[in-house]
TrEMBL record:
GO molecular function: hydrolase activity; metal ion binding
Keywords assigned: Hydrolase, Metal-binding, Zinc
Superkingdom in the source lineage: Bacteria
Lineage, uppermost ranks: Bacteria, Pseudomonadati, Pseudomonadota, Betaproteobacteria, Burkholderiales
UniProt-recorded name of the protein: Metallo-beta-lactamase
Cited SUPFAM superfamilies: Metallo-hydrolase/oxidoreductase
Family: Belongs to the metallo-beta-lactamase superfamily.
Organism of this sequence: Caballeronia cordobensis (Burkholderia cordobensis)
Length: 313
């Protein structure tokens, strides 16, 4: 088994922000140097990396290993008595293609409990998309089979996304080794806890989904609006600051790189220089921030100041 990802730079692993009356708790599973930029971005060059602001940030790029710092984390949204868990990380004890994920022991569920949340407290579980690092803690292994981790939850699946990943066209060897659909998605259906939803699904008066297709066909963001404030959990629309500086860079993991580019540009254009708090799936602490035009063809992401975030541990 490969060495587990180290927690990076002693950053907080569980912390909260408030959007009007809605509370968002971010609970990290792992934070650390994970992907080489060449592995993630086919359009990146040595020159573009050298001139990027990202390379200068120790919290975002590990120059020693040449790897980008990636946080893998879940977002618990509490609103009007509803608890919605968005993205459930990689999970433990699962057979995976990537050595860092294979038969891992991250202990994310212990961290959830330490943050004061029981698995019985979660009402809804949603993945922004069905990639391996967003669905792992959907299930856990007990008595010889995979069972839903959250016994009282309805698990919401966006129809386009589910159709894509359960069709034959999705069976790329890279993605399917270890069959994460088989151990993290199908058991939810077998347990009768799955609901199939549209990409514009409304959870309640403060929370709705917005389609952000391209990275995957049914990729969605989660829009939170309360008391005149707005935040968007933007999933894997962009993985690092490099894609703010270079909005046309899609990743090697994007199913449709062109559509991903269009969704990202339209999203940045809509929210640039506004009060919207953007919460990308893989940004390390404090994760959230705002997007601003940088005077050229790109954008600048400004992280929230630490006093706007409440650290739990
Ligand atoms: Zn991801």
């Amino acid at each position: 088994m490969q060495r587990l990802l180290a927690c990076h730079q002693h950053q907080p692993l569980a912390y909260q922000l408030q959007i009007g009356t809605v509370k968002i708790t971010i609970i990290a599973e792992s934070v650390g140097p994970l992907l080489r930029w060449q592995e993630l971005y086919p359009d990146a060059t040595e020159q573009s990396m050298a001139s990027s602001n990202t390379s200068a940030h120790r919290n975002l790029y590990d120059a020693h290993s040449g790897r980008l710092v990636i946080a893998i984390q879940a977002f618990l949204i509490e609103s009007d008595g509803i608890r919605l868990l968005v993205d459930t990380c990689v999970g433990d004890c699962k057979q995976r293609a990537r050595p860092e994920f294979n038969h891992a022991g991250f202990g994310w569920l212990d961290r959830l409990h330490a943050a004061g949340v029981s698995v019985h407290d979660v009402d809804f579980v949603l993945a922004t998309h069905l990639h391996v690092d967003h669905v792992g803690c959907n299930t856990y292994f007990e008595d010889g089979r995979w069972r839903p981790t959250f016994p009282g939850a309805r698990y919401l699946f966006v129809k386009e996304e589910l159709d894509f990943w359960t069709s034959d066209s999705a069976k790329s060897p890279l993605e399917r080794t270890g069959d994460y659909i088989g151990d993290s998605i199908f058991p939810i259906f077998e347990a009768g806890q799955a609901d199939i939803i549209e990409h514009g699904h409304v959870i309640n008066s403060s929370i709705r989904l917005i389609p952000l297709p391209g990275h995957t066909p049914g990729h969605v963001g989660v829009c939170i609006e309360s008391e005149g404030r707005r935040a968007v959990i933007s999933g894997d629309l962009f993985h690092t600051l490099l894609q703010c500086e270079n909005p046309d860079w899609s990743t090697r993991f994007c199913v449709d790189p062109q559509q991903s580019r269009q969704s990202r540009r339209a999203f940045f254009e809509e929210h640039a220089d506004t009060e919207t708090t953007i919460i990308p799936a893989h940004f390390p602490y404090p994760c959230a921030g705002s997007i601003h035009r940088n005077g050229g063809s790109g954008y600048e992401f400004r992280f929230l100041s630490p006093e706007k975030v409440s650290n739990i541990f």
